[in-house]
Amino acid sequence: MEAPNMSYINQLSGGDIAFKNKLIGIIKTEFPEEKAVYFESFAAKNYNYAAENVHKLKHKISILGLEKSYKIAERFEDHLKEKQTVGYEAFHEILQTITDYLETL
Amino acid sequence: MNCIIIDDEATARTIITQLCAGLPNLTIKGTFSNAIEAIKYLNQNEIDLIFLDILMPGFTGFDFIQTLKNPPKIILTTSDSKFAIEAFEYDCIVDYLVKPVTLSRFEKAVQKATSVVTVTTPTERAERISDNHLYINIDRRLIKIDIASIYLVEAKGDYIQLKTETKNYTVHSTLKKIEEKLPDDLFLKIHRSYVINIKKIIDIEDNSVLIKKDVIPVSRSNRPELMKRLNLL
Q1: What is the DSSP string of chain B?
Q2: What is the rounded CA–CA span in Å between residue B159 and residue B138?
């Protein structure tokens, strides 16, 4: 499993520590909320809505430099649109990896 | 260029705000987490450029564009490249940014927005709206209405009542505002409180018109224009 990194955030902040901390703070607030909404939709078998939730989570995945995970999420989103759950284990693993990483920041 | 950012995701709004801050020719006038708030803002303010997310809950970026009579330049921002083809159907869309947006790609998009020449005239845009739709805001929901189905608009204090073939809607707006959104070739103000769809007139008698089941007064000053617009034998 690839590891999240700060490459994009560092590049974007251009050494502006205040902005970097602000952005990390927003991600740390927003990611658990989006994740909770996704799990709720997935548990309720509301797969169209879950696909929308995955779509939004993809942005966080890409911000944290998880390129392979992004592709996994993209495929999972497509499956959900077809009302299939193929790939959910891998996607849930990605969410857990990000959760663990954000706790270290 | 004055710009606004519309994205339901706070992280995305923060990133675009930061990228804008690095370009001296951009001034952020507002950031919005939903299209309804942005529409309210645009009804009162002129903007040169919008950074617009495509997938937002309940109301997509494309739905939003269709509510604008004279849309400013728009740069789409999305986590998905699948919408690119649809984006090219809109003259106002100057570029399409896939998230996460990098500084170099962002600068290129803004450069395009700065240099792009608007080829669509306001009249052409108005015509496009005329055979299209109108969105009205009721209880924080944007409801799509086929413009041609509207037969009467009545001013009621701070509200207007829109009467269509199938349903009536009461909206917090003014007759002047709705008049600006409706195509001139189809709609005419015949009284200070009424705008009618002239195609729906059943008959005219002295100083009133019968439209569907409604008898609407015609003011003396508006009567000559009404008569001019009718296909009289």
Answers
A1: -EEEEE-S-HHHHHHHHHHHHT-TT-EEEEEESSHHHHHHHHHH---SEEEEES--TTS-HHHHHHH-SS--EEEEEES-GGGHHHHTT-TTEEEEEESSPPHHHHHHHHHHHHHPPP-S-HHHHHHHHHTSEEEEEETTEEEEEEGGGEEEEEEETTEEEEEESS-EEEES--HHHHHHHS-TTTEEEEETTEEEEGGGEEEEETTEEEETTEEEE--TTTHHHHHHHS---
A2: 11
Q: Which of residues 144-173 of B touch A (CB under 8 A)?
A: none
Is the pTM for the entire model greater than 0.90? no
Contacts of B169 (CB under 8 A, 6+ apart): B136, B138, B143, B145, B161, B162
Closest chain A CA to residue B103 = A12
Q: What ipTM score was computed for the predicted complex, to two decimals? A: 0.94
Query: Is B5 in CB contact (< 8 Å) with chain A?
Result: no
Structure tokens at B8: 């339901």
CB proximity B104 to A under 8 Å: no
Q: What's the farthest any 2 CA atoms get from each other in chain A? A: 44
* Bridge partners of residue B204, in order along the sequence: B209
Per-block average pLDDT, block size 10, for chain A (105 residues)? Answer: 93 94 97 97 96 94 96 95 95 97 95
Token digits of residue B56: 């937002």
B128-157 confidence digits (pLDDT tens): 344 577 878 776 677 888 888 999 999 988
Query: What is the distance, to the nearest Å, from the Cα of residue B177 to the centroid of all Cα atoms in its chain?
Result: 11
